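Hey, resending since the last one bounced:
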Amino acid sequence: MNRNRLKNPRLMMIVAMTLFGTIGLFVKKIPISSGEISLYRGILAILPIGAVLFLTGQKLNYAEIKKEILLLLLSGAAMGFNWILLFESYKHTTVSLATISYYFAPVLVTIACPIIFKERMNLKQWICFIMSTLGILLITGSVDLSGGSNHLLGISLALGAAVLYASVVIFNKLIKTVEGLHRTMIQFLAAVAVLFPYVAATGGFHITELTGVGWGYLLIVGFIHTGITYCLYFSSLKELPGQKAAILSYIDPLVAVLVSVLILGEGMTVMQVIGGALILGFTLWNEIASRERRQSK
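The structure tokens again:
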């Protein structure tokens, strides 16, 4: 019974999305730069992913990787800087507002696909785009510009992270031969390769200044929130129907909002709640509709 549960893709997806939703809680408590956190996140995540590939006998196909190396490197670099902007946004606004703004990424992908892949937008997609954009406007229009936190900057950084994440999605759509954890492994290696000189040039390395608690949070973000969670995510994604995966992925922002409000004590205004509901609701509707169209072809 227990072994079957451990292999249950629905349960693995729920666990993965729940863990993703709590990452802001730990990142906010690591007293080093967002660039350093992102670098060490990539390094630490490579270890469990590499272990899974080794133990399951999944060897990297260097011939396939060579064909798409440029796309893999570009997507890895975008992923690394996406982490930096998202983590930096946590420092300037609440975890809930940063996460909800970050979830504007699927809307950006919807807008980019007609330009890049010559896909036509239907009425549902236009409605989702308009209503999600309205949600962003409600969130940014109701931020408190007084006090110590610069919420507008934090939301802007999260939207910048969304743009980079959307570019990662686009790159992944262009990558045809390298799949799953193999792709993620190469992208993480590329992210580390780009982030190392970036950190060296923008403030240097301060990992030795971390206390035991700081090290604990960093290890959790690297091993658990990235390495283990990505393994769970990709393992479940192969087995779940697209519509169910789309619905379960929205556990992430919901958990992030609960963590922000209930644990970190970060409040949200009524207009921000409405804006967040518009973004999450209409992007979910768009995701489900898009997957249904692909499955019907």
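Residues 1-6 have pLDDT under 50 and may be disordered.

Sorry for the duplicate.
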